[in-house]
Amino acid sequence: MSVTTRGALPGGAYDVTVIGAGVVGSAIARELARLPLRIALLDASDDVGDGTSKANTAILHTGFDAVPGSLESRLVRDGSRRLAAYAAENGIPVEPLGALLVAWDGEQHAALPSLAAKAGRNGYHDARIVTAEEVRSREPHLGPGVLGALDVPGESVICPWTTTLAYATQAVRAGVDLHLNCRVDAVTSGDPHLLATGRGPLRTRHLVNAAGLYADEIDRLLGHDDFTVTPRRGQLVVFDALARDLVRHILLPVPGALGKGVLVAPTVHGKVMLGPTAEDLDDKTATGSTAEGLALLREKGRRILPALLDEEVTAVYAGLRAATGSEDYAIRAHPAQRYVTVGGIRSTGLTASMAIAAHVVDLLAEGGLPTSGAEDLEPLRMPNLGEAFPRPYRDAELIASDPEYGRIVCHCERVTRGEIRDALASTVPPGSLDGLRRRTRARAGRCQGFHCGAEVRALLESKARP
Ligand SMILES: Cc1cc2nc3c(=O)[nH]c(=O)nc-3n(C[C@H](O)[C@H](O)[C@H](O)COP(=O)(O)OP(=O)(O)OC[C@H]3O[C@@H](n4cnc5c(N)ncnc54)[C@H](O)[C@@H]3O)c2cc1C
Fold first, then answer.
1. Residue having the nearest C-alpha atom to atom 26 of ligand 1
2. How close is the Cα of 24 to the center of ligand 1, in Å?
3. Any catalytic annotation for residue 206?
4. What gap in Å lies between CA 116 and CA 241, rounded to an integer?
5. Stretch 96-109: mean pLDDT, rounded?
6. What is the pLDDT, as a whole number, of residue 1?
């Protein structure tokens, strides 16, 4: 088991290499890890899940509103079931809150029956239309003008950071080599393929491209020009934990011509999220927020939940969806080339990740990858980041056995020295303060590290990664 962050890459050919350690690439590496093969997972960044996978709305979708009959519909439905079970087994926080698609005008209200019918065509039969009175009693803080809603009880919120980390951890423990700071710059297609990376050459018989926003560019290196990724920015605002009591469900908009629209949802970390925007850009690095984007979110949020806008803002961030102009994933197999492209995983990749992984392994088998001898992986127990579940600082027995769990470092998020110590010593340790935040919540609270930043940094630096 190994994680490398610098130096030359190992020699000899890997059986399979996955480019991109986002939630999708990590899920694929984990699925492959069940096979007796030599596998590499590469990422240009210094951490797993550092691209789109760290910045989304973190909803474990049912797939009720997908395009019926699409690959995305099938994989979201399957992925949702798989991830819910995986999360329960491995300690990934999930809150099954259910969603309400709230209708605010006659047009939206009239659209609810066709949305319920669409859910049925997507194999989801629990959606039902509810009256304005029922919506009000279930969500007393909603703004005026609610006409009714579609109740979708199967929607949940999940921790996106823990999900990617769990996949990567399990893959590495099962023998996958994770190479970070390892950008693939060129590919000479052959048997084996030769990858030119920032850390030298790497050879591999089979190749999976899970490079997210850059999947089209990797595809062109292998001679394919099937799709172009247009980054679609989603800006989000996170409100402080004091706002959490204002909302009980995921409040989805009724989708219109401009896409899914702006939602209000609790997070598993105990806060409330408002967003995202949907802006098509040219720049694949434009994850900044804009005054216009935030003003739009405030306007939409005030209509949905007026009191939310009076609460303190903890964080503002943006993620980029990998839009391709198609209403479906761009997953393509090139069996003769022993190559699979996993492109266009736009706004549902977190939910679908485990189903995408199983599908990709089937596609690799078509290209000759031996897939017999699969074994179950050792289950994990991920550190709990969920506010609705027991956290170490409240566990008297745990603190009695190890006082480090009683020493709070980050007071906003109540993160202890014991949790930071564990994260630094974990299978896939963080390489930066942001990576440490995604593993522990340290510095993710209302003071954004003003109080604990220096101590957290000192702890990280005391355990700098090789
Ligand atoms: C605003 C927003 C809201 C969303 N909400 C949800 C939601 O509620 N539920 C849901 O299920 N999904 C949601 N999504 C979608 C989900 O986040 C994505 O589908 C998913 O994160 C995509 O994962 P990925 O692994 O394909 O891409 P990424 O996470 O971007 O991973 C790709 C990785 O490839 C690496 N890479 C790129 N090029 C190279 C190279 N040349 N060499 C080496 N490495 C490379 C990158 O560093 C990156 O880490 C949302 C997305 C956004 C932006």
1. 212
2. 7
3. no
4. 33
5. 96
6. 59
CB atoms within 10 A of CB 59: 23
Cα–Cα distances (Å) from 406 to 67, 414, 448, 451, in that order, read 49, 10, 21, 18
- Cα 308 to Cα 121, 249, 256, 367, distances in angstroms: 35, 14, 24, 52
* 271 CA from centroid of ligand 1 (Å): 22
Name residue, tokens 């009880």.
153
- Output the ligand 1 site: residues, CB below 6 A: 19-25, 42-45, 50-53, 56-59, 61, 183-184, 210-214, 218, 234, 276, 319-321, 345-351
Count of positions (residues) in the chain: 466
For residue 345 the two structure tokens come to 């995983």
> 318-363: per-residue pLDDT in tens?
999 999 999 999 999 999 999 999 999 999 999 999 999 999 999 9
> How far, CA to CA in Å, does 228 sit from each of 148, 168, 176, 252?
39, 28, 30, 29
**Closest C-alpha to ligand 1, atom 25:** 22
Report how far apart, in Å, the C-alpha atoms of 464 and of each of 197, 356, 436, 458, 459 are.
23, 34, 12, 10, 9
